[in-house]
Specification:
This protein is of the alpha+beta class. Helices cover about 40% and strands about 10% of the residues. The strands form 15 sheets. Strands 1, 2, 3, 4 and 5 form a five-stranded antiparallel beta sheet that branches. Helix 13 (about 615-635) runs parallel beside helix 18, helix 13 (about 615-635) runs parallel beside helix 24 and helix 24 packs antiparallel against helix 26. The chain is elongated, with a radius of gyration of 67 Å. It starts with 12 loop residues before the first helix and ends in a 10-residue tail after the last helix.
Amino acid sequence: MPFALLSALSLGMAAAAAAAAAAAGSAGTDAQRASPFQRPPTPSRRLARRLTGESVAEIKARLDVDQDGVISEAECVCADGFEMELPEVTKDMIDYSALGHLESVTKSLALTMYTSQGDFTPTFLRRMLENLLTQNAEEILGVWTLFWPDGYQVAFGRGPVNLTGSGIYGAGPDKDQLMEGGLTKYFFPELGRNATLFCPYVFASPCCPPRTPGDFLSNIDGAVWNSYMEVESGNYEFAMRPVFDYFNETYGKRTFLESGFWAAPYIDKAAGVMVSFSMPLVTEVPVDSSFDPWVYQRTGAPATGPQRSWEGKYVFGVAGIDVKLSNVILNCGGGNYSQFPRCVRCPAGSARAANQPADRCYECEPGRYSPGEGLSECLRCDPGTHAPGQRSTECIACPAGEFTESKGQAQCTACPRGQFQTASRGTACERCAAGKYQHQTGGMACFNCSTTRTTLGAGSISSAECICSASFYAPAGSDACEPCGVGLSCAAGSSAEAHAAALAGGASAAAGLVYPEVVPGYMTLSDDPFSPYLCLDSGSCPGGLPESCASERQGIACGKCADGYFAMAGTCSQCNDLDLSGVVFPWLLLLLAPGGVCVCYYFSNKRVENWATVNVYLGSVLYIVLNNYQAVALVKKTNIYLCEFSSASLGIWSVMLDGYSMFRPECNSSFDSFDAKFWVNLMAPALLFAVFFGTYGVSWLIGNVQPRVRMQRDQLTGMFFSLYSSFFTAITALAMGLFVCYKHPNGNSSLKSSPEVLCFDEAWHSKAYASVAAVVLYCLCVLVLFGYVIRRAPTLFTKSESFRQYFKFLFVKFHPDAYWFQLPVVCRSIFLGVASVAFQSGALQLYWIIIVQGLYMLAVVAVRPWRHPSGNALDIVSSFSVIAICGVSVFFAPSAAMCASADKETRFTIDVSDGLILVMSIASLVLGLILATALVYWYKFAPVSREQNLALIDGVLGAFGIFTKAPPDVHQELVAKLHVCDKALLEATARLVQTELLGQQSGPKRLITPAPIHERMRDGSGDTPC
């Protein structure tokens, strides 16, 4: 209760009464009675000197000018007055929960008085109050008790008291009435009631206001100040509210110890703004003052006697404490703290939540920061930043090489080994990519392995993890990495040492080693394991360790069939016992060859008058088909890569270039070597010639006995050259075979026909001259021979039957106007053979074939050289099929990886190319069979009748008769209107009649069929009839 409330001092009531009696006896003057304050007791000398530099006695002596022992109002001269600006403070601004620990002070006082049942001495009360105050001197300004109706009677003199008007508004006894014990000036009109108060405030100047609120000299001496507050003020509740609530059970049935009440803040002139806590003082039995002091407020009449509370106790006073608000925590919102008399925003670097005590702001912990004032929560540092200490106002970015991956970190974490962070504010470290490493923590970058080295994965922590990159390997005894190159597959970390270990230990040892492996489709030799050779058939070379070939193959590039196997259509098949015996090759071939010559001789015995027959036309179809598939076989021999199906589709026609291979010469050990095969191939045309004329010699020997058996030399020669020209493309390929090489990744080259043989080595050079001679003899000499014969043909053809028989093969297939067309056919064969010799690139080889075959097809379209139109159609389709096969092969150009791919789109592309190549490869054969069937039908089963010929003659004669009878001007007009093609047709018709009917040449040369009709068309004078 504030010290300005002057009432009876129950604290140390005996001492107070004695002091009051002494004052009444010695100072009863008017000046004394006019004094507005009670002279305070002597304050503590020690505390007074500490604050003012002079003792209380010295202060009194200085102020008491008249030396009467009393400081009058006139003598109270203050150097400076009390000018503190008192703020307005409301109850909702106070955080009463922070003052809960002070309520126990009042409760202990009330409990002590309850225990003594109100029967105690003033000395005991004073000491108890002094102890409570001394123990809480920093927080509590005062501890007090308030008794009624008469302070002295309650404490504890029990003298006569007039209880009239002792209610809350009662004036109490006469203010001039002398209380028992001699207390005077006990009541103040400003108070309006009687009470007992202990107030501990003593100021440095007993007559002047304090210079600062709460400035006091002693914790145990009383001081008086009037005009504390008006009775009507709401703050007056601190004295009556706890008792009122207790009696009326405002908060339910709460005991007197639970009925404490914190009053609203109020203003004290001396102490400033204060707040008080009070609670009822009760006994089990009524004492003299145990009556309801608020009866008057409710009824308007004084109380008549004691009144029991709901728990059967009697209230005889109130106890309380006074707390200066500068020591009280205000109820500040989040982001603010209590700094009486106002809430202040928390400074940067700190914060306060609304549910935290408001006595202070809380420094931001490490990992958090407050960038400005008034924050209710410290913010967590973002990932990539940190706050290492307290009171941080900002977060510091993690430097390069460090990171924080979550919010609220106090320290950055250094990137572990194998990781790095190049920039500041990193939220994570990146793993060193393959080919890099970082051996330290906190790395800002990774170190590169050497150019050709890498690591097995990301996050390497040492340079020792740098190994040779994929497609490189470490040679023996060297730190450098060498490229594997084409044909080798080097996984990262491959080394020659591991390869040697795998080679020495076999497949079981190779399983756990990393070494350069041979890619399927290639092979290497043990003495040079990193020098790959390209295999023509990928299935022959499974790859892996050196010299790994399919079980039936051996040699460089796995190009030779193993002993006991023979090559056919690109595969090796096992020889049977008959093949191995040597009977099939060469003896069976030598036995069958003369018989074949005899059969061919029989069917070739046709005079020129019989050339316009179905057999000739069928022979032309067969000739075109044979030449087409020789060209297709040449496409297969180019260096273009084909998938397995396409390779097999074209490979079956390889027999057209190597017909005797069907007799399996490899099965005969005498012909199994490359030398033997080379000479057999090179001498094949000569051997064929020997067979023909050996057969001729035999026929002459037999002809001495049976003349009909004797063969005619001119006819047999023509048959030989007919067969020779039919397979001229194959003979050209055989003659040039030694020069058809393909390149290996290691720089060497192998023969296309025998990959196990290296081109340009000593053995190859020893055979090169023979091959050149074969090219000159078999190709160029034959071309010259054919050219000479064709040049002489228009003159000799009609004169010499022997000429016609010798060289019938050159002319029998072609139209008389295109008798020379064998030359383009032969030239095409030579130029097709040149493709694989002149170019190493498979694409260039195919482009060359496309050009040659395209020019030839244009010649066929322009000349229409074949004797029957079916030959022209078949030749055009065959040429187009070869061009299409080359085009598809070049356009798709699959690789081994594409052929083995399981990708749906890639497989579709491969399937399309395989299908197109298959269709084009059989187009010539299918059309040839269709045309042959049609020719047989037309000429054998539906021949042209005599009537049809007569009708044709009548039509021609009629047309010519009309033309001859027309006047000359009509002739001129008709010819002028004809289209150029019609003119050419009319001119060809005239030339046809002139040459075939009269035997006369005019314009382009034409082979004239010799016939008696020429003589019959001439009269005796030798003139040609009109």
